[in-house]
Amino acid sequence: MGNFLESVFDRLLQAADRVVLREVRGQQFVNVTGRELLEQVGRVRTCLRQLQLQPGDRCALLGPNSIQWIAFDLALMAEGAIVVPLYSRQAPAELAGMLRDCGARFLFAGDAALAESIAQVWPEAPQRIVFDEILGEIPAGKGAIAPPNPRQPDDLVTIIYTSGTSGEPKGVCLNTGNLNHMLACTTAWMDRLGWKEPRPITVFQYLPFNFAASWIVMLSCLSKNTVLTLSTDLNKVADEILLSKPNYFFNVPTLLERVRRGVEENISKRNGLTRRVYRNAREAWRQKQDGKGGSVFWLAFGGALIFSKIRARFGGDLRGLVCGSAPLAPETQDFFAMLGIPIWQVYGLTETCGICTMDDPQIESEPGRVGQAIPGIDLMVGETDEIVVRGPNVFPGYWNRPEETAKALYGGVFHTGDQGEVNSKGNWRISGRIKNLIVLNSGHNIAPEPIEDKLAQLVPGVQQVVVVGNGRGYLCVLLAGSIDATAAQSAIDRVNCELPHYRQVRNFVILKEACTPESGLLTANGKLRRDAISARFAQEIEQMYKQHAALATGKSA
Question: Half-sphere exposure of residue 316, counting CA atoms within 13 Å on the CB side?
């Protein structure tokens, strides 16, 4: 049996005359067949040999998702290079640091401006080559279609840099064996969705390929009978989805929760009948889920008047959604289930090839949980409820960081840094990050994520929620976004009534600026950089605690 890359090339040959990839360009598609994609790959491989590329050379890919990006990725892997995918929207100085760290020989970029932005901050940057320059050297139709060069299971395929929530990003090395196992798992999962049918399945992709899970989605689709549609304008994702009419697409919770809030806010502004139908249909659905029957009339009426129109915004052919990167709020998963759109959650890290658990599409999922461990791995709960994993999906180490590799792989297992637990059905729940634990001066250890997730659902207009309080006597919270203070206090009161006293939020401040990757307060994939946020808003945090202390003193007096 061949390796994962040979399987991709074989599938593209089988799909020689069928469209396998397309980009959304306005209201049109740019399509390529399996043969055309392989021909592009062949043209790139010819030029790589002219550049005297050697197996093991690190080569960076910088640019938004595109057919060309995929052609370069496949060509570099086929020639034995180690691909280093970079995020095109990340700060040039951070990108330069990654290039310097991995010792990249070449930087292949989607356009000259991207490449030059790095050279401006790092004059010693490696040789920079724009995609069109290579593809323009050999005319279309002149690329030799050949199988990829042989590779061993231990051969490195890629170095993917972590998002760096604390400290500098680390280069996660993934090898052929990691990819062989992961692609076997994901393609088998696709078969359980019914993807063995003759008609190609349509998949929409908007998440950047420099993220491990997104890259795995792309390789999985190229390994099966699919048409993968690439978003080219993140500002028009809703329009692109409508045009693409996908059967499935991969998501992060932010988008899905934004859809739910948008629908509910829109309905709250509609006439009384619409609000009544939605309210009654939602209650009937909940009763049905609880085994109490539920009104067939209201379910049918709500489905015809409201739910069908929401589903139509996704193109009308949507069969389900996959969600990862962070826990999805149970309320959001229930909302889409009510619409007739199942959501399957996945959990994993770059170090585990993107995936450790997946909801089984043939078994009803549990909102708030991220599915069962994928086949062939051991997923366990270690000390302090930390999730540890052992298996062929676990990376061999960080690039040139032996001490951090030894720490992460101590005891023969990978220490994820995530806290979680598993129930009797084998379904996992992720409760927080160990290093994010807030330790009050009372000695109480508190995971901030559950409180943050709940407030994010309840505070209208909020973009980020950051719970603080390490070393202090109680918790406070930073709220970023267009937020009404009264609504924020009301939400905090609702959350507090369900919590023990030491986990209650005593005060809040509304930030004037939202956290963004450009400001250095979020990682490239939207995770909070807590240390940076605490440093940036140190004055606001201190004032928040002083204000509450003064109020508390006044009340006691």
Answer: 1
Q: Helix axis angle, 212-222 relative to 4-14, nearest 10°? A: 40
Q: Which domains are seen in the chain, by residue range?
A: 4-237 (3.40.50.12780), 253-434 (3.40.50.12780), 437-556 (3.30.300.30)
How many residues does the structure list for the chain?
Answer: 557
Closest CA to 94 of 115, 123, 113, 121: 121
Query: Cα Rg for the chain, rounded, in angstroms?
Result: 25
Which of 36, 19, 106 is closest to 71 using CA atoms?
36
Q: What are phi and psi of 481, to 5 degrees?
A: 140, 180
Residue 414 has a pLDDT of 97
The tens digit of pLDDT for each residue in 533-544 reads 999 999 999 999
Q: For 239-263, what is each residue's pLDDT tens digit?
A: 999 999 999 999 988 788 888 888 9
Give the C-alpha separation, 252 to 163, whole Å: 15
Return the amino acid letter for 188. Answer: A
State the Cα–Cα distance between residues 371 and 365, nearest whole angstrom: 7
Tokens 């379910």: give the residue. Answer: 299
Q: Are 412 and 402 in contact (CB under 8 A)?
A: no
133 backbone dihedrals φ, ψ, rounded to 5° = -65, -45
What are 152's strand-pairing partners?
none
